[in-house]
Amino acid sequence: MTATRYLDRLTEILGEIRTRELPRIEQLAGQIADAVIAGGLLYVYDNGHMLNTELFNRAGGLALLAPVELLLPRLGTAAVRPGGEPAAVPPSLEDDLALARMAVRRAGVKAGDVVLLGSVSGRSPLVVEMAEEAARLGALTVGLTALQYSTTLPASHPSGRRLYEAVAVVLDTHTGIGDAEVAVEGLPEKVLPSSGISAALVAWCLVAALIDALLQRGVEPTVFRSINYPDGPERHAAALERYRRLGY
Q: How many folded domains does the chain comprise?
């Protein structure tokens, strides 16, 4: 069955992450813990499919994660033709790169922070520009990408670099080339992507390792409890207040 084959492939990816990424994740978590204790923040932006919502305000998640919000005029900006008819003018690459730089600065990224950027293919010029801007500001940059897939693709950023070439640390999601994982007889293309699941798995493993690293340093991070309990909203508000007071 296709579902069984998909689960088999996901199990294979999980094993690759466990054996090949976990040591790097644990080393990175120590660096992030030191940064947080020194007053830094862990910023996250994902150009993929999950992490911009998956990691934030979740039961069992950490309050110390900070989003980078990238607001792009995806449908183009309003313009008027000579006859008075409106036309859609798509933003230029230069406009998008400027907005990417602005997003990093607007988020407040500074020296001593850590910025985690996700892109399955790694060729998004936006995340490459965000990585370059974060590095210019003195932050440690981390790329979450499908490394094998990315190496087969041309860059879109003017620098000619893909995400894994623009960051200080690379975490590989071990997604296959093309993302879709299962060949099905009768269909011309493979089906069932793995990138969302594997990216979330790597990211949550990083959170797990960060919890360990902070506790080993004598720091108890603020953890969210499910808001669905009767006292959930109050507990959530108390957690946010604790985080604002302590910084972790």
A: 1
The answer as to whether 75 is a domain residue is no
Q: What is the CATH number of the domain that holds 152?
A: 3.40.50.10490
pLDDT tens digits, 44-58: 999 977 888 999 999
- The pLDDT assigned to 92 comes to 84
The pLDDT value recorded for residue 180 is: 96
CA distances, 236 to each of 18, 42, 66 (Å): 32, 20, 16
> Residue 170, Cβ neighbours under 10 Å: how many?
20
Mean pLDDT of 105-130: 96
- With respect to residue 229, please indicate whether it lies within any of the assigned structural domains: yes
Angle made by CA atoms 32, 48, 189, in degrees to the nearest 5: 140
Question: In terms of residue numbers, what domain contains 33?
Answer: 2-70+90-246
- Rounded Cα distance, 96 and 45, in Å: 15
Please state, in angstroms and rounded to a whole number, the distance separating the CA atoms of residues 95 and 87.
18
